[in-house]
Amino acid sequence: SWCSLWTWRRTHLVGRLRLANGGNSSCSGRVEIFHFGQWGTVCDDSWGLLDAEVVCRQLGCGRALSAPTQAHFGQGSEPIWYDEVACIGNETKLSECQHRGIGSHNCGHSEDAGVICEGKYRFLQLVSMLLMEIFHAGQWGKVCDDHWDLDNANVVCRQLDCGRAQSALSNAAFGAGVGPIWLDNIYCSGNEPSISDCRHSGFGVHNYGHCEDASVICELEGEVRLANGGNSSCSGRVEIFHSGQWGTVCDDLWDLLDAEVVCRQLGCGRVLSAPTQARFGQGSGPIWYDDVTCTGSETKLSECRHQGIGSHDCGHDEDAGVVCEGKLANSGNRCSGRVEIFHAGQWGTVCDDHWDLDNANVVCRQLDCGTAQLALSSAAFGPGRGPIWLDEVYCYGNEPSISDCRHSEFGVHDCVHHEDASVVCEGVEGEVRLANGGNSSCSGRVEIFHFGQWGTVCDDLWDLLDAEVVCRQLGCGRVLSAPTQARFGQGSGPIWYDDVTCTGSETKLSECQHQGIGSHDCGHSEDAGVVCEVSTATLPTLRPPLNITTPPGNNTGVEGEVRLANGGNSSCSGRVEIFHFGQWGTVCDDLWDLLDAEVVCRQLGCGRVLSAPTQARFGQGSGPIWYDNVMCTGSETKLSECRHQGIGSHDCGHMEDAGVVCEVRLVNSGNRCSGRVEIFHAGQWGTVCDDHWDLDNANVVCRQLDCGTAQLALSSAAFGPGRGPIWLDEVYCAPGSHSTASPTFPPVFSTDIPIVSTTSLPTPRPPGNDTGVEGEVRLANGGNSSCSGRVEIFHFGQWGTVCDDLWDLLDAEVVCRQLGCGRVLSAPTQARFGQGSGPIWYDDVTCTGSETKLSECQHQGIGSHDCGHSEDAGVVCEAWPPFPPVNSTNIPTVSTATLPTLRPPLNITTPPGNNTGVEGEVRLANGGNSSCSGRVEIFHFGQWGTVCDDLWDLLDAEVVCRQLGCGRVLSAPTQARFGQGSGPIWYDNVMCTGSETKLSECRHQGIGSHDCGHMEDAGVVCEGKY
């Protein structure tokens, strides 16, 4: 219908920009944006350079020079779509910036905003050949060729993301420009960010009589093109650009997998054939590639294996070609554009008669672009040329290709090219692939599909849990490592995810928490990668060939086995080494602490850990460094079960090799904190004689084992007689001694027993306050409730607090579970329950939510923090027994003792009877006649409350619209746009992924936990119910 066609067209153009009334320049003028089928203007309230920069970027017009206001380029006449625009400057489109809401403003056209962008380079030939013009003083002008050289040209090519300069041309090589000459006598060092940052004579100062226009040719290394394919840009002889020259590819080993990569790189759909023997004529110039072997998953031909650039034994009679099946033309996106198909050796178009979504779905599926969003007619992506191959197409939607649908015969039609059919596909939203991984489809740069485009993932917070989800999604077995810093080369296109935080149990990467699709502060130098297990062939070369000096025969072991090297007579102390891929290697000491060392001691049967030495305390190892940034919870049975950066992934040298010292244990008891005392010496466990054995001695043992203070010092083999040597007798420990190894027993062993540094243990606090079990938690200062308060945990005989850095509901949930206090309600921060005293034991706690104890969660290391007690973390748990089911007459009364005072007592002015609802229900208030726009309110604990606008964005608003059945989101207004609410503020720092069905499923700071006032109440504007 015309209505639906109009909706499709309108949706396709939404968010497009243009600059009006800018004279001869397309890069300056009044800002206009397209919404709801109409162009409209932008109000200049809050308009600044950051906003203008986004406009210039979206239009490809270089940097922003100024952001004129007050209708500098004349007043517009259409609607005013945006007001109070607040871009952060890294958005790719103006529509991604925060604003007051589409159509919401308090402006007139006398306040229309404008931009002036720095400069734009006009392309005069297709392949990176440019006559330059830059924008200054409201006008485009030329650059003079005096002193024009490759350093200058390199700056231009870099500014345009066109690689290095191949040539710096003078004498108006691409024809003379018009307008003023803005720059002359330019001297660039080659590393300036833009041509105007180079030294020059000054804008408009030049030697006119000797001046000609400067030009450049940039090289796009690795670009491909198809030559001699007739009217088609999607079939022909394969040519690739290297070292400033186009060259061909030899057909030795050339097959469909190789051709498929070329078709993908060019956006030409699936491959039809891979012709050989110069089927499209012999090329000239170099033959760049031979023996090409692609896996088929690469995004560029240059990522495939080959014999080496320029290395071959071929002639041009072996030039390789490709024929790709179909393409969507005239769009920057391979999943949208004009439909073209290949028939009888020629590309042709499809007529739009009876063109609908069923037809478009077949095309999208055929191109691996998911389902169709739009089926466009009337040459929406411009008219094609050549034959019109199909007309009167009728598809059911499940055909394998468009040519399998019912249609008039090939070439039979009554159309012209202004009726060419087009589609917009959504892609396989959330699909992942690994690029540039060599022969393996299970290792490479992580790429994910969103909004019709492949993009990368930033490596901020990227770790094994995230990589594990990717491996699972691809069916590639266990994860081996999670490389960062573009280990598999830098990608191109958008960076879709940043700060990814998976729990490891998700089935798709898109299910993990992240900063928001397209929201990041990264460059492609931070692209994340994965290496999945599959087989050893999937592993990349992690380092240059290793200089292994380990003696022959030393490299036998079991995968994941550990040993301690260079520890003298003791097999329970030394440099930590672990066996992987047939080789022993060391562990880097970054983040190495007692929890990590404890796992090593357990794996070796060496009892409890005494210390975790760093900085190659036991000498520098050789061979590979297998682990870095090891983070054990302390409960693992093997070091290989601990979290780390990935096997072989590190930034260390052997001067950072980690070590352990294991020693004392208590045996013959079901409790690790009681039993017969045994110590390890000279490679053997032995006992301690009870002569002079007293509480001072026992206190040292208990403290050494992280078991608090001693209750009893037992003699006469109370836990049964031991066997083997008796290592110590006549032991005298002074009050406050820190190790049974401290001397005041016969000196025979005084040089052999390792001394534990007193700095590794805390100073004991006064007796009576510090009784507890290692890892036990309690909640302090919570009033009458034992299920809310400041979180405290017992370590090394002392209670200490937890810092609130990264503290959230998942962490608090574990505390509530450990205490048997039911579900978590909130995770207060900033010492909400008062400041504690004593040590701060944990910082940067990151629980998955499934742990049974807080001590099992990942953290920075016991006692390692950068916090003060003003950052002590707290929890509020629901408390048992659970409340009875909620209904209209039985709403649970939440004891005020179980909740902290979140604010001064709330002034609830909601009319009587207004507080009926279902837990987690949402409504929109104060939205006028619309039930699909207004202030967001959510029902908790028998009361409606609002949502704070901190971090509030379109993804959050989208969930509200979905929950209410109000269609798509249009905007996410902030600053109490729909008036200030009253009553509690239930949510703050809401972070939805956009896929949730209810707002209550999104991540937030905790119910009732916030630092907001009602002037920050969040709102939504949804499209409306149908």
From TrEMBL:
Keywords: Disulfide bond, Glycoprotein, Repeat, Signal. InterPro entries: SRCR (IPR001190), SRCR-like_dom_sf (IPR036772). Pfam families: SRCR. The keyword Transmembrane helix does not apply. Residues 17-118, 132-219, 224-325, 326-426, 432-533, 562-663, 664-733, 777-878, 922-1023 form the SRCR domain. It comes from the Eukaryota. One of its GO terms (cellular component) is membrane. Disulfide bonds join C43-C107, C56-C117, C87-C97, C157-C218, C188-C198, C250-C314, C263-C324, C294-C304, C351-C415, C364-C425, C395-C405, C458-C522, C471-C532, C502-C512, C588-C652, C601-C662, C632-C642, C803-C867, C816-C877, C847-C857, C948-C1012, C961-C1022, C992-C1002. SUPFAM superfamilies: SRCR-like. The keyword Metal-binding does not apply. This is SRCR domain-containing protein.
